[in-house]
Amino acid sequence: MAYDAWFRDAETGTGRWELDEIVYRSPTGGLLEVAHDLTLLKTRSAAAWMRLWDTRYKRTQWPYGSGVWGKKELVLPNVPDEHVVSLDEGGTNLFWAERFGREIGLPDLWVKQCGVSHTGSFKDLGMTVLVSQVNHMIKSGKRQILGVACASTGDTSAALAAYCAAAGLPAVVLLPRGKISAAQLIQPIANNALTLALDTDFDGCMRLVQQLTEDKKLYLANSMNSLRVEGQKTVGIEICQQFDWEIPDWIFIPGGNLGNVSALYKGFEEIRELGIISRIPKIVCCQAEAANPLYRAYASGWKEFHPITAQATQASAIRIGDPVSRPKAMKALMQHGGAVEQASEQELADASARADRTGLFNCPHTGVALACLLKFIARGEIKRTDRVVVVSTAHGLKFTESKAAYHCGGNLPGVTPHHANPMVELHAERQAVYDAVMRHMERTFG
Questions:
Q1: CATH 3.40.910.10 is right for the domain spanning 94-119+229-409
Q2: Overall average pLDDT of the 75-98 stretch
Q3: Using CA of residue 82, residue 57, residue 363, residue 397, what is the dihedral sign?
Q4: Which of 368, 351, 355 is nearest to 291 (CA)?
Q5: 411 has pLDDT over 90
Q6: Short-list 189, 192, 114, 119, CA closest to 366
Q7: Residue 445 Cα to chain centre, angstroms
Q8: What 3-state class would DSSP assign to 421?
Q9: Residue pLDDT, tens place only, 146-194
Q10: Which helix (H) or strand (E) is 405 found in, with range?
Q11: Using an 8 Å Cβ cutoff, are 199 and 177 in contact?
Q12: Residue 174: enclosing H or E segment and its boundaries?
């Protein structure tokens, strides 16, 4: 069938702009969202949609083996298959965190490992959609676009650079100098993006990239562009699919620019409309205390929101004080009774290290979500029988500096490393090695 999608005003649900138009906001300045013809989509039964998506999942038929493009009808039906730019994103491990869950009294705990992806973060999910749409507009002759640009705290720039490189499109990334990890910085450089390190923070980069894309010669790739949300929403759908279309009770997800929060809700709302699920899980947006404008609004009873100047945090990818997608996130959280929590630098570092000891290898943003989960458990807000999913947004290998500082340096600002496992340096002698092993065993087993 000829399924259709278009832009509309996210606040009012009105207006219509075609996806081939270069537009990021409504005439009133509000954010847009991608709308789908749900009436036509509902002519296929819920059971038929589940069967179709299951037969495609992680298979080799282009492009439907992708966790995103396997749901193409509900993501970007207007783009022909030959214009899709995919790096086999999605289909990531839903890790049963059995040992960590047992330690914290939550036996049904799962971690959605979105960092096990081509560029090491969940940003691949949205970027495949956005770059495919740009590729389609250029190849179909509908728009003359010189390249694609974004502001980034690291992961967005990596994803944009990789997908543009695969499509043969120029990429321009604006980064806050000295505020992202070395692994994140080298990714767009290696993928041949024009990488601009600026003397500002992410919010300053975001203001500049919006100005840079005003004349429409460059296409804006940040999450205020609602095409990104269409890819990111599939993480929630995929979680349900991996649970054989059952719904978890809770989802904890890190929040910075907040596109991921509204994306989760959008995916759940749409598959509920299709009859695939009957309820939406409780979603908790987790912020670093150093960059917590949404938490402050939530703590005020949603009475007011004020941008802040985000402070230094290990969770550098969510060091954002003026999140662009805040209106969508607040609307969704209020409508569905979601919650917001925060974690200090001490809490997120210890939570990450503690979970790592059970076989995970968390980025600090996942540490934020884990720390917030521990607070909910301590307050008795989560039952032992609840099924809980923590969304891990990036691979821990992108943040080895902070892990090394925690375990081996002891010099993370404001953090006492309670779970440090420092390296032991010894002479290459049998007795010295034997003694070190025995001391370790005594500490471990008493």
A1: no
A2: 97
A3: negative
A4: 368
A5: no
A6: 114
A7: 38
A8: coil
A9: 999 999 988 999 999 999 999 999 999 999 999 888 999 999 999 999 9
A10: none
A11: yes
A12: strand 171-176
Query: How many C-beta neighbours within 10 Å does residue 430 have?
Result: 7
DSSP letter, residue 317: G
| 337 Ramachandran zone, left/alpha/beta (phi>0; psi -120 to 50) | left
* Reported confidence tier of residue 383, pLDDT bands at 50, 70, 90: very high
Amino acid, res. 110? W
Describe the chain by its helix, strand, coil percentages, rounded to 5: 45, 15, 40
pLDDT value, residue 122: 95
- What does the alpha-carbon distance between residue 403 and residue 357 come to, in Å, rounded to a whole number? 12
Residues whose CB is less than 8 angstroms from the CB of residue 110 and which lie 6 or more positions away in sequence, other chains included: 94, 95, 96, 97, 248, 387, 388, 389, 390
Would you say 270 and 38 are in contact if contact means Cβ atoms under 8 Å apart? yes
Q: What is the DSSP string of 190-236?
A: HTT-EEEEESS-HHHHHHHHHHHTTTSSEEE-STTSTHHHHHHTHHH
Band (pLDDT 50/70/90 cuts) for residue 305 is: very high
Under the banding of pLDDT at 50, 70 and 90, the label for residue 413 is confident
Q: Where are the beta strands (DSSP E) in 255-358?
A: 282-288, 339-343
Q: Phi/psi of residue 32, each to 5°?
A: -100, 170
Give the integer Cα–Cα distance in Å for 63 and 31: 29
CB 293 within 8 A of CB 305: yes
Query: How far is residue 244's CA from residue 193's CA, in Å, rounded to a whole number?
Result: 40
| Domain spans of the chain, in order of start | 94-119+229-409
User: Which tokens hold the place of 306?
Assistant: 């004020």
Long-range contacts of 192-196 (CB under 8 A, 24+ apart): 192/161, 192/165, 193/157, 193/160, 193/161, 193/164, 193/165, 194/170, 195/157, 196/172
Mean of the per-residue pLDDT values for the chain? Answer: 96
Element (H, E) at 158: helix 155-167
Per DSSP, the residues of 350-385 read HHHHHHHTTT--B-HHHHHHHHHHHHHHHTT-S-TT
Give the pTM: 0.94
What's the whole-number mean pLDDT along residues 385-403?
95
